[in-house]
Amino acid sequence: MIESRHADIAIIGAGPAGMAAAVRLAEAGVHPVLFDLNATPGGQIYRQLGNPQVGAGVMGEEYQHGRSLVEAFARADIDYRPLSRVWWIGREGAGYDLGVVQHRAQSWHAERLILASGAMERGWPFPGWQLPGVMTAGAAQILLKQGALLPGVSPVLAGSGPLLYLLAWQYLQAGQSPALVLDLAPTSRYHALLRHPRRAWHGRSYLLKGVRMIAALRRAGVPVLQGVDGIQAEGREAVERVRYRHRGHWKTLPAALLLTHFGVVPEPQLARSLAIPHRWETGQQAFLPERSEALAVEERLWVAGDGGGIGGAINAEREGRLAALEVLQSLAGKAQDGLARERAVLQRARRRDLEARRLLETLFRLPGDWLEVQPEDTLLCRCESVSRGEVERAITQGAAGPNQLKAFTRCGMGPCQGRQCGESVARLLAHRTAQPMDAIGYYHIRPPVHSVTLGALAAQQET
Ligand SMILES: Cc1cc2nc3c(=O)[nH]c(=O)nc-3n(C[C@H](O)[C@H](O)[C@H](O)COP(=O)(O)OP(=O)(O)OC[C@H]3O[C@@H](n4cnc5c(N)ncnc54)[C@H](O)[C@@H]3O)c2cc1C
Fold first, then answer.
1. Cα(153)–Cα(155) distance, rounded to whole angstroms?
2. Does one domain contain both 106 and 224?
3. Are residues 174 and 255 in the same domain?
4. In the structure, which protein residues have their CB atom closer than 6 angstroms to any atom of ligand 1?
5. What would the pLDDT profile of 327-373 be if each residue is shown by its tens digit?
């Protein structure tokens, strides 16, 4: 008979949020089990930290900041399970059942759960984004962090968000000069900050970092164009050219590699598969799970880090600690003075972090009509090759919501399980039916939320 393994506390994700939660729990003598997809702890930002192939100066200060947390995590008494993917999750009794594949399938039951599954890059369709040679800046950064891999050709970077500049700067430090950086954000956004001095002040550290990176790129002769739109990748079998509009003029540039970035959004699959209510947050331009100030979404479920809303790595670490304090309090069954003081300090710092993030949201706000101005044949769902035109026709034929659109067109049914097209489909529906994003909602997410082989399931470990 297949029985579930039991955990008092399970954490999903070994990024800053999950690691900080686990370390804080272990400090209090509570030993969680922690599942993470990757081979080493660190999550997105501290991925492969300390990789000797990558020079210490290449990745920047934020990356090095994670060292003490990764070391504390390595020392702590935690049942850490790397290379483990949680592919389904469900409520059972007062806790949660988890389907996990760590080489073979396992079933787990957790009394309490911290979801720290982080963020992903926003899927943002444009003509030619399906061509080989077009990839996201985040994916290129993973190759750099994990394998010290540089493109070998000068890439064009295009889109909106701090990661665009960070990667361009990291490439420069690693000796690979980008050909061009195309930023959707117009220069006027920076000038407009003068009208929001409070926001600029709170976000000054981000601002200074950005200015320093742009200055370094310009000094190295890398053109940085702001206020660009109409980005397209052109080519027959792979990208050969990048087309864009700048100051009203169309330009075309030969390119063998286009790296794009359109911001990050919470990884939706696990929270959505539990049908946790979400709301559209206009500042972040994303659906966020509804959490209390104490990061709780249910009595025994907490969402910490970027999975609950994009706050950056330092904030994720604070939220991980906060979630751990809430778990400790729930285990104790009553309020504890020491925990309350620690919680108050963390909450104050968290409010400051989130205030500072608003600067990035102002600067890198994406244009609301981006999808509507794309040509009809632009693919919305790359997995199932469904175009914007096909989705629009299905809406005209009466598909009333994302799930009906899925049934009409197959968009969202491919291997990415809707991660790349979910937001676009909701945006198009909202636009065409003149409804708010909250009224449109999102795909119903069902397991498997990650690919899992029949072999792994057949070899389910018996306990
Ligand atoms: C591609 C990318 C690159 C980024 N690079 C930078 C950067 O260079 N600098 C910077 O300041 N910020 C960067 N960010 C933002 C930064 O990653 C976050 O602010 C920070 O890492 C959030 O921490 P977290 O703990 O919430 O989530 P993450 O660090 O994202 O950690 C989440 C962890 O959960 C795991 N996970 C998710 N789903 C499952 C599952 N089903 N089963 C098991 N494990 C799962 C993931 O593998 C991951 O290890 C990046 C974000 C992305 C998406």
1. 6
2. no
3. yes
4. 12-18, 35-38, 43-45, 62, 84-86, 116-121, 138, 141, 163, 166, 264, 267, 270, 305-307, 312-313, 316, 450
5. 999 998 877 778 899 999 999 999 999 988 888 998 899 988 888 88
